[in-house]
Task: inverse folding
């Protein structure tokens, strides 16, 4: 099937099988390998991207379903070499270790902060319920998102 | 001059991860690469009656289909540790084939591999492989596996034991001491099975280059050199120098990526057969079914005390599952990584542990974060808290009474345990005192008494752990059955411009080696850490290595690098002395330069480096270049320790446990980067909390895994846990150059019993004395009902 | 994980979707948010030959008021419901419930119509549609009809929907005093027990999910409510198919049902 969508501000068009997930499409057709597949069944959140501005798990969307949408992936967050404030905050607060869940964490954090610019720790933790991290124990991820909120609000 | 050791330097690896530019194995695509899918057994124990691959072979896009009859691997994947029976009989070591041929021994065991042009087509074709099985009865519990008449895992032996083993004092002596003890506390429980669950699933690509007759294996492993060695020497019989193993970024390991897996070897074989690269990435179902699991001990233990509350003896019997086959380090885990920690932080004079390690119709059990030490700590810290309750002594007080007194391991000797090891240095009083202060223990007890009056169930649990890491002195582990040395390699290459490349056999999969190793190398050389680059995960670049596990990277890998740094400075001093026309003994090295003592005559590290590579004006008899490799073999393990304290509230209506506070005061020796050490503790603690409250692999009676997805295996999420309050004391390791002990596993070792102790404490006034882990709401509620 | 091959058709209207359902019969499945269906397809537990995507049908994603009722289009996502002012003020119990579903990402894509049609016995919405006496509006080749919530759920993954029928909207009465209580399953975060209570003076309507294979109205609780302080103890009266798993066996689940009913009644 022919699909086209805007990804990180750029138009793409491909002919793909309907059974290909958005995550697979990004990784295999566009080489946007920052979107990771951890469980492939919407459990772990590593594949989180935004679809028309809202966080979504790219493993559980068929690429054909989001034909015509605007997608942002982790690769679209930084402005050239200048990292997004959320990315900066993760670095400054050691909010990542192995880095595998990190893209999903950053994209989910973006959704959390978009809808709630001044979240409490509890709200952040609740907001991350769809994202597993096996390395950090979440402590520094929560801290990073708090710090990102301060940066964005400053 | 800027220094780096001990500072919370931000990680240099983060930028690539944060931009989605990490290079994990599944991110790699090679020209002409094929994809593979496995046909796996739905049965735990079955005879394979027939396999029909005809339809699959004819399916669209299929390149090849292999089964156990035509696949390689006469030798199977080997086990790296031999633990023999107490009576001297050799460990029973079954062949672990790359593809099952006649018999299935666990659910998920691979029967066939299908190679196709795309992953989709490989999966489609795999469904067309027809396998006919005759199902047989299975046994999954290690204790039941040893009962008469239990289904046998391997027919060639009379029972299911892989080995049995014991450690410590003479059993009859320990039993006698228990007989005459003033008080004996007894526990029977299961330290249940866990799935490691690195978020990156295992992934391999093998690429055989027919013209060079060389393989490149991209693998998500914690130890690339060991994989290459096992693969070449034991499984495929191919020349080691013809194989390059690359493990770039690896998305978490926690032990599960130490081992040499069948898929790794099979893909290597396949890529030569088909003459093209081939990739396999595990899906999450396969990860649950085939990644090595952790724990799975059935424990019965007795601890005896005298009238003053001093421990007089400790006797334990365990059944520890091995799974269907012996994974790489499996036999070491419930034995030398477990029994050797039964001294804990206590002066216990008599200890005996007996371990029976049976095969079961399950996937293998091997090291999972902590590996044997969390199991030892859980036992010691639960039983001492249970004893405290029974003897009506405060659990902190009972620990203080029994602690080994502080010793620094230099002017005071190390502590000789009853279970083979000698502790390096320790101050167990110090961490408990600080932990209790951080918590506000006295106030908590008052608050608890008040809360109970109002029907509120709050509790505190203490755990004072010790662990052995910095694995390990080769001769020692060799005498204990290890089939490898456990040294590490550190290579320091000073470039002509004075920039430094460091090649380490340790492997980072989240630990931050690229940053931390650069910190101490920079300080030792007196240069900026931006001028130091760390290379790992490539067998063509790094001479050799034993990889990262057992919290060994800094203590062993770091020490190897320090040895090479010292060689660089030693040779540099010769060159500097020549250039400064001074005696070497008159030079001192500081801030990146050699200075003639008492003068302002000096030469910089950069100038000496250049001289080494442009040796025109050069000392006689000295080789050009500034490039050293060293092997460091530690003289002892290292012994980090600490106190973990949990505060919980139990919902009296539902039994749900709310973890309200978690305090960790750890002593990991000297600290290179406190930010990273804290991060390691946070993550480890939450994994330990996961075991205490949430996670459990369950196999049913037929050997089917009930918890094979995130719908049924409860992973700790952000809102399941609080912030972790951390602090440290510092008792340097006396036997390695950096004075470091290791921090990777401490969190997972100390935390589990703290949480369970807290839950039992919250319910103790209701008569609850123990609850099986994980302490799920159902189990807590049932425990409350039994007592009510 | 890759689903088996299927044909994908994007329906642009309800009638087109019905026509496609009629044509493909058993081989077809409707796709809305896909958050239950796609994982099942990836595990190859579900293998439709034709997937009819109704996600893009216009007119199925509005939230409107119709007299004393609120009409929610089947394609409204859980996030739409959480964020709707109208629902927050006049049907707050539904917003409370939607907040408990999945996670941010799932709420952004999963739909109320899809969830009801899937009829997972541990889903959250069934409790609240039962307690509210909501009506499920459906359309099929025979035309439109309205199914009362109490007649909609027939068993595990089984509803009163005919093969060619599509949920178009859910019609709720406005609810001033309603409350949803959920005890989470710790792995999936589905409901071990979910209880919705809608109070009106001396009477109450109680919907229970997660306990039985079929979500139910706890009529014994409702009957006992005005006269008894112990109404919650009747939470599982007459239920003979209590679900059981490693998180909650029958005994514990029955206990939790009573606790959650009590909380919902007292809230």
Result:
């Amino acid at each position: 099937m022919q699909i086209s969508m805007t990804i990180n501000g750029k138009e793409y068009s491909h002919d793909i099988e309907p059974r290909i997930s958005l995550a697979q499409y990004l990784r295999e057709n566009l080489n946007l390998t920052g979107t990771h597949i951890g469980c492939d069944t919407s459990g772990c959140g590593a594949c989180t991207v935004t679809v028309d501005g809202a966080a979504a798990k790219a493993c559980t969307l068929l690429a054909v379903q989001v034909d015509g949408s605007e997608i942002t992936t982790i690769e679209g967050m930084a402005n050239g070499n200048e990292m997004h404030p959320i990315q900066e905050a993760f670095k400054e607060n050691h909010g990542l270790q192995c880095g595998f869940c990190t893209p999903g964490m950053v994209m989910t954090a973006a959704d959390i902060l978009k809808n709630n610019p001044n979240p409490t720790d509890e709200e952040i933790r609740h907001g991350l319920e769809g994202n597993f991290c096996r390395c950090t124990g979440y402590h520094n991820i929560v801290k990073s998102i708090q710090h990102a909120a301060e940066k964005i609000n400053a | 001059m800027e220094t780096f050791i001990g500072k919370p330097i931000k990680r240099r690896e983060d930028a690539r991860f944060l931009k989605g530019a990490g290079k994990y194995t599944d991110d790699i695509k090679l020209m002409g690469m094929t994809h593979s899918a496995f046909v796996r057994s739905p049965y735990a124990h079955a005879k394979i009656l027939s396999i029909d691959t005809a339809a699959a072979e004819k399916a669209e896009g299929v390149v090849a289909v292999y089964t156990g009859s035509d696949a390689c691997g006469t030798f199977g994947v080997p086990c790296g540790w031999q633990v023999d029976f107490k009576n001297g009989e050799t460990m029973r070591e079954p062949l672990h084939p790359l593809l099952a041929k006649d018999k299935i021994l666990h659910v998920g065991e691979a029967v066939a591999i299908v190679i196709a042009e795309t992953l989709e087509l490989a999966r489609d074709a795999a469904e067309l492989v027809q396998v006919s099985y005759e199902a047989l009865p299975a046994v999954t519990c290690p204790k039941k596996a040893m009962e008469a008449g239990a289904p046998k895992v391997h027919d060639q032996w009379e029972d299911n034991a892989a080995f049995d083993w014991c450690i410590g004092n003479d059993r009859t002596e320990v039993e006698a001491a228990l007989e005459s003890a003033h008080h004996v506390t007894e526990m029977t429980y299961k330290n249940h099975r866990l799935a490691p669950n690195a978020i990156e699933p295992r992934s391999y690509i093998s690429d055989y280059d027919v013209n060079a007759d060389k393989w490149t294996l991209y693998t998500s492993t914690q130890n690339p050199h060991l994989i290459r060695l096992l693969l070449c020497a034991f499984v495929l019989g191919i020349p080691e120098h013809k194989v390059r193993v690359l493990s770039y970024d690896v998305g978490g390991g926690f032990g599960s990526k130490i081992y040499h897996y069948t898929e790794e070897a099979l893909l290597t074989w396949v890529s030569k057969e088909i003459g093209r690269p081939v990739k396999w990435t595990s899906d999450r179902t396969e990860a649950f079914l085939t990644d090595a699991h952790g724990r799975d001990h059935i424990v019965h233990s007795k601890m005896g005390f005298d009238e003053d509350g001093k421990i007089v003896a400790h006797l334990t019997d365990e059944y520890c599952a091995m799974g269907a086959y012996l994974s790489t380090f499996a036999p070491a885990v419930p034995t030398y990584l477990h029994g050797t920690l039964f001294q804990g932080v206590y002066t216990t004079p008599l200890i005996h542990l007996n371990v029976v390690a049976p095969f079961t119709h399950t996937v293998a059990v091997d090291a999972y974060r902590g590996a044997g030490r969390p199991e030892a700590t859980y036992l010691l810290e639960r039983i001492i808290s249970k004893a405290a309750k029974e003897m009506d002594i405060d659990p902190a007080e009972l620990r203080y009474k029994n602690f080994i007194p502080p010793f620094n391991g230099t002017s005071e000797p190390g502590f000789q345990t009853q279970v083979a090891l000698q502790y390096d240095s320790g101050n167990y009083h110090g961490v408990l005192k600080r932990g209790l202060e951080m918590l506000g223990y006295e106030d908590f007890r008052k608050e608890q008494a008040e809360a109970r009056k109002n029907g509120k169930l709050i509790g505190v649990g203490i755990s004072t752990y010790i662990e052995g890491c910095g694995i390990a002195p080769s001769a020692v582990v060799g005498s204990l059955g290890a089939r490898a040395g456990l040294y590490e390699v550190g290579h320091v290459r000073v470039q002509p411009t004075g920039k430094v490349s460091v090649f380490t056999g340790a492997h980072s999969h989240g630990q931050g080696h690229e940053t931390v190793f650069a910190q101490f190398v920079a300080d030792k050389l007196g240069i900026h850490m931006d001028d130091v680059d760390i290379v790992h995960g490539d067998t063509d670049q790094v001479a050799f290595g034993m990889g990262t596990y057992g919290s060994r990277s800094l203590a062993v890998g770091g020490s190897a690098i320090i040895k090479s740094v010292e060689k660089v400075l030693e040779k540099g001093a010769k060159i500097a002395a020549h250039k400064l026309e001074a005696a070497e003994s008159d030079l001192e090295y500081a801030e990146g330069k050699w200075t003639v003592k008492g003068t302002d005559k000096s030469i910089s590290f950069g100038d000496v480096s250049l001289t080494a590579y442009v040796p025109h004006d050069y000392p006689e008899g000295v080789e050009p270049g500034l490039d050293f490799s060293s092997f460091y073999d530690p003289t002892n393990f290292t012994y980090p320790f600490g106190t973990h304290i949990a505060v919980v509230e139990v919902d009296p209506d539902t039994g749900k446990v709310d973890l309200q506070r978690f305090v960790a005061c750890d002593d990991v020796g000297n600290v290179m980067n406190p930010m990273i050490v804290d991060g390691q503790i946070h993550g480890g603690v939450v994994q330990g909390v996961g075991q205490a409250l949430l996670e459990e692999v369950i196999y049913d009676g037929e050997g089917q895994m009930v918890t094979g997805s995130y719908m049924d295996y409860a992973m700790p999420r952000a809102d399941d846990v609080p912030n972790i309050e951390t602090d440290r004391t510092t008792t340097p390791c006396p036997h390695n150059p950096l004075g470091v002990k290791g921090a990777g596993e401490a969190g997972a070792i100390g935390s589990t019993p703290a949480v369970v102790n807290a839950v039992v404490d919250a319910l103790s006034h209701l008569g609850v004395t123990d609850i099986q882990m994980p302490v799920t709401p159902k189990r807590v509620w049932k425990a409350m009902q039994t007592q009510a | 994980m890759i689903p088996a091959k299927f044909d994908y058709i994007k329906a642009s209207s309800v009638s087109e979707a019905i026509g496609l359902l009629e044509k493909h019969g058993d081989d077809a499945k409707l796709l809305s948010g896909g958050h239950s269906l796609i994982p099942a397809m990836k595990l190859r537990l579900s293998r439709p030959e034709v997937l009819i995507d109704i996600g893009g049908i216009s007119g199925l994603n509005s939230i409107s008021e119709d007299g004393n009722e609120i009409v929610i289009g089947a394609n409204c996502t859980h996030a739409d419901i959480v964020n709707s002012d109208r629902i927050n003020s006049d049907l707050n119990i539904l917003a409370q419930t939607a907040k408990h579903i999945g996670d941010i990402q799932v709420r952004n894509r999963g739909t109320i119509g899809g969830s009801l049609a899937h009829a997972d016995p541990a889903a959250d919405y069934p409790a609240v549609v039962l307690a509210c006496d909501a009506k499920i509006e459906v359309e099929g080749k025979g035309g439109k009809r309205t199914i009362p919530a109490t007649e909609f759920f027939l068993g595990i993954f089984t509803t009163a929907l005919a093969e060619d029928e599509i949920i178009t909207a859910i019609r709720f009465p406005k609810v001033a005093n309603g409350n949803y209580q959920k005890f989470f399953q710790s792995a999936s975060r589905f409901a071990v027990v979910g209880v919705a209570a809608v109070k009106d003076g001396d009477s109450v309507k109680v919907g229970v999910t997660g306990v039985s294979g079929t979500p139910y109205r706890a009529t014994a609780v409702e009957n006992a409510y005005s006269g008894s302080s112990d109404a919650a103890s009747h939470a599982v009266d007459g239920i003979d198919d209590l679900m059981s798993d490693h998180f909650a066996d029958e005994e514990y689940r029955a206990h939790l049902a009573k606790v959650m009913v009590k909380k919902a009644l007292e809230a």
